[in-house]
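Our working data are protein records whose layout never changes between entries. The record below serves as our worked example for the rest of this section:
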Amino acid sequence: MSTNTIANVDVELNDEGFFVDPGQWTEEMVPELAGREGIEELSEAHWQVVRFMRAEYVAKGTGPTVRVLGKTSGVSIKELYQLFPKGPAKTAAKIAGIPKPRGCI
């Protein structure tokens, strides 16, 4: 684990870069977190996915898999891979400040 300063807030990240305490996350952190993942400009679709991931985590205690994300977020699987080329569920979870979804490598 390591302490990182994101949007002027010290947060703990695990060895894979996921928030240890998802309660520390704020939307103000999203641009910086996205930049760390190589996403320089956030579209409305990026925000839709990040907010959806966050809502699913709050409701169910885990983030959705990429398959569920593609079926229920309003963004197709093809578009998810365009938005988050390094892996939609894993990358979006990092940006949304939630733990790595089950099934992600």
